[in-house]
Design a protein that fits this description.
single chain, alpha/beta, 9 strands, 19% strand, globular, 7-stranded mixed sheet, 279 residues
Length: 279
Amino acid sequence: MARELILYCDESDISGKHYGNFYGGALVESRHLAEVERRIDARFAHLNLHDEVKWQKISAAYADKYIAVLDEAFDLAAEGKIKLRIMFTQNYWGAGHLTAEQRETSFFRLYYQFIKHAFGLAYAGSTGHTRLRILFDKLPDTDEKCAQFKGYLTGLTHYPLFRDARLSLSADAIAEVDSKHHRLMQCVDVVLGAMQFRLNDKHLEKPAGSRTRGKRTIAKERVYRHALKRIRQLHANFNIGISTGTRGDIANRWHDPYRHWQFVPDNAVIRPEFAKRKK
């Protein structure tokens, strides 16, 4: 039987105070899928989390439950059962000389780069054929544009590094799904939300007219800090605002259980108006 890799994808803020275009994913090999689903479902059931888990729903009363969800996801990552990846752009670096069509399709163009490079699929290693399956949360665009995007993705089968790795992606292996029915996708949403929350300084926000932060903001910061703690157990001195290094071996783009990728366009131009200013 051919090896199969299942990739669950989600996206978050397109634009933020400092960072935007957040994409996230979790990858599972088919041989681990049953165990991963069983363990995540069991953790959700134990926590009495019957509704969809999403970053935006975190409250003071539910912070501990979301932390427990993160623990299960990062335990699986530490055991090599899943791989987690986050990609984003920094507003300070803008893409120069884009055509109108390139700007209009930038969401899909960036998603394409995320899938092509973030997981190091070209270095997945196998003695036989490997099939890739991709599950997206419902894509926020027209059916026509989504179909065109999926068509471009199937072309990755002919990408030289994918071809050398005997990796294939067919049209019937790409689907849009309802995240309510996919717990692992909900875990991605929480990790993705935690990263964009901190990178865009949302932990500092205060309600209008208040001198103190709201309870939900404080609860979300608790969840973010726990996520960072778990990441740093995998990567000492991890910096959430930069790309994770390969430590001299590009194959670590595949091997690492967790990675960040700050996407910088080849034709990047500096936009000084987005530079962080020290107080």
